[in-house]
UniProtKB/TrEMBL annotation:
SUPFAM superfamilies: CRAL/TRIO domain, CRAL/TRIO N-terminal domain. Coiled coil: none annotated. GO terms for cellular component: membrane. Residues 106-264 form the CRAL-TRIO domain. GO terms for molecular function: phosphatidylinositol bisphosphate binding. This is CRAL-TRIO domain-containing protein.
Amino acid sequence: MKKGTKAITKADAYRFTLSDELRLIAKEELRETQATRDHALQMLREWAEKNPRIVKIRMDANFFLKFLRAKKFQIPVVQENIERYVLLKNAFEGAFKNLDCRLPKMAKLIDQGYMFALPERDREGRRVIFYRPGVFDLREYTNADMLKIHGICYETLMADEENQIRGFIHAGVGTGIGLPYLTLFTIKEAVRIAKNGEKILPMRHREMYGCNINPAMKVAVDFGMSLISQKLRERIRLYTDIKDIELEKRLLPKEYGGEMPMAEMIRLWKLELEAYRGRLLADDEMSVNLGMYSDAAKEGSVGALKEPLNGCTGASDNSTYGLAGSFRKLEVD
């Protein structure tokens, strides 16, 4: 393999430096051992170099491991996810590139507390992402702004190895959300975002809590639930009031029954975003040859998600860079 021809980051030698507890969780829940990890990293690097559709890509272990851990080291599925991930970043640059927390609109949404990770982990060591969608002013922000702020926050959190292994908790307060918010995305867009997000985003969604949801939004909530897998639906809990959610209250902002003021939480969160900002912006260098994909694949259509990218223009039946083995339907864990 020619080393570095496509790499925007070095193919580093990985050492597991986390706790023995995390090593055990990784082995029992994600099938990760030194042997499976070393083999998978080698396979992915060779695949990326040989895949003619990939032009530039990160080759560092952290990048590949977040996908491997999210899909329990199922290499064919991980290959597909990585390629779709880079494809969508290239096809929808307005939403998925230039993920800069310093952009005026992004900085304002962050300061308003639209979404942020709570500083303390829960009793099982997982980060909690807290959402306040009601501050998203439809007169000021666009649907691309919404996708971009989620991208900034999720990418920052996914880079952390402990988060990759333990997964995430999501908790949202629906105060201020009403029917006008349904105009943000068309039904087709909403379906594509939900399907692509669940399939491609390398996150382990462990629990999701929602509260204070406007009764007028019930139809929209039911529609949203219908778009995700049964496994994810079973992890969602909806409550009338935040005081009822099954989450340690001390973790929450003081304004919602916790201990630390929200302003301090946001200040700490901004430090995390700044620390990862340079790496995240450098990811824009990753690219694929858009001319080698179908229009449906570039649009992220639901139908295209069911077809392996190896069947795209430019792929031959006997190719060695394609997906090894047959696809198996995977549940997101």
